[in-house]
Structures are given as structure tokens and as C-alpha cells.
Amino acid sequence: MTRTIFLHGFGADRLTWTGTAPAIGGIDAVTPDLPGHGNAIGDLGDGSLEDMASRLMADFGEGPPAWLVGHSLGGGLALRLAARAPQRFRGLVLLAPMGLGRDFDYEALVKYSGISDRHEMRMFLEGLVARKGVVAQAFVDTAFGHLERHGARAALARIANRLPTMEAELYGALPDVAESGLDITVIWGAEDHITSPHRDRIRTLGTLVELAGTGHIAHVEARKQVNALLADRLAGTR
Predict the structure, then answer these.
(1) pLDDT digits (tens, 9 = 90+) for 25-77
(2) What's the number of CA atoms in the CB half-sphere (13 Å) around residue 54?
(3) What is the DSSP string of 99-129?
(4) 207: three-class secondary structure by DSSP
């Protein structure tokens, strides 16, 4: 089976892949919490892109080359890891990744750590999707519960304040990713209000797939489509 590492986005945790990783047959799925998130709240370091990438790489350990699947911040980290050690990976599938977008709404993410109640959380989550009905109350409750965990707000605020710098660092790393020759597919919701695809950047790396009627969290809002794309992409490497 092909080892496939799933990297979630800002403010989420490994459970965001609950409806994704188990649906892809024939893979050995690894779903870590990013530094500063989930059960790794206390493992943030300075919150920089390089520090987060180093901590993840150390956790991966040795083994045959793996696929990386990353969403948003996790997609940016996947790009950084691929630039740093391309021999460790077989390819990337990226969902609305940092580094390959334009007009990123950093302000919304900077405000995230200050969300004070479930109503505010619902408003934030509804901004991530094209169809508000996707945001069930259980989704809101879980997200707010994660934010209320000890140390979560401070960790996420530290990361959010570094996001513009991360974007610039990722842009500088793209030539190394392109030179690696890794197989890269980028998936983007056509109604993503957090960021939109930078087509020229993506063209230098791989293929762009856009999903109609879908926002920033395509793996949640268009789960079946994303799972089918992942299954098809990974099918030839098992």
C-alpha cells in the first residue's frame, strides 16, 4: 500500500480527514495534527513555516516515498516539504494550498483565534463554503470546542500572524518544487472566498482541477468528488 500523508488546514485538526482518508482504498493513511493544532497544540515552536515543516518531517520518520495531500496551510507545508526533500515523496495533491493562491484573506484567519461564541464560529465556517447548509451544528460545536482547548487560541494567533511571511517564503520555494518533477494535482473550489487559484504558478507545477459550487474546504463540501479525484490520482501508485 502507498503511504499517504494528509495535512489539514489552519484551525482544523487530523479529524478533518475522517470522511476522506478511510474512503480511499489501498493506501496507508497518516493523518497528523499540525504543530499548534489538535493534540499538538504544545508542539508549535516559533510558529514559522520552517519550524513547522521541520517538526513534521521529524515525525514522518524514514520509509519509502509517500504521497502528500494538503489543504490550505497544510498544502503550503506540503509544498515546503517537497522543496526541502523531494526524494521523500511521490507526489502531491493540494486543496486550495497556500503558496498557489492569490488575494488570500489573511484578516479572516487572524481574527479566528478571537472568535468568542458559536454564532461567530458559524459565521466563520459559512464563509468557507458555497452552500451554508453544509455547516451543521455539530461542525460548529466541534470547531468551537477545539478553539476553547487550553493554549489553542495563543498557538493559532501565533501562526496566523506569520501567514503573510509564509506566503512569501512559499513563493520562493516554488522553483525547487518545479525542478523536483514531482506529480502535482491542485484542487480548488470555484467559489472559494478565502483565496483563488494563481493559475500561472500552478501551471508551472502541475494540473488544476476546479470544482463548481464549492468553497474553500472542498474535502468537506464536495467530499465525494474529492475522494474520487484522490482515488483516481493514487490508483496508479499502489
Answers:
(1) 899 999 999 999 999 999 898 989 999 999 999 988 788 999 999 999 999 99
(2) 9
(3) TSEES--HHHHHHHTT--SHHHHHHHHHTT-
(4) strand
Q: Which residues contact 115 (CB under 8 A, 6 or more apart)?
A: 121, 124, 144, 147
Residue 197, beta-bridge partner list: 101
Alpha helices, H only, the chain: 49-60, 73-84, 106-112, 118-126, 137-147, 152-180, 199-203, 218-221, 223-235
The three grid cell numbers given for residue 5, joined into one nine-digit string: 500523508
Cα gap 158→45, rounded to integer Å: 10
Q: Give the distance, in angstroms, between the CA of residue 39 and the centroid of all CA atoms in the same chain.
A: 17
Entry pTM: 0.96
Select from 20, 9, 7 the least CA-distant residue to 195.
Answer: 9
Cell numbers for 181: 518533477
Length of the chain: 238
For residue 154, give the nearest of 42, 8, 39 by alpha carbon: 42
- For 207-226, the pLDDT digits (tens) are 999 999 999 999 999 999 99
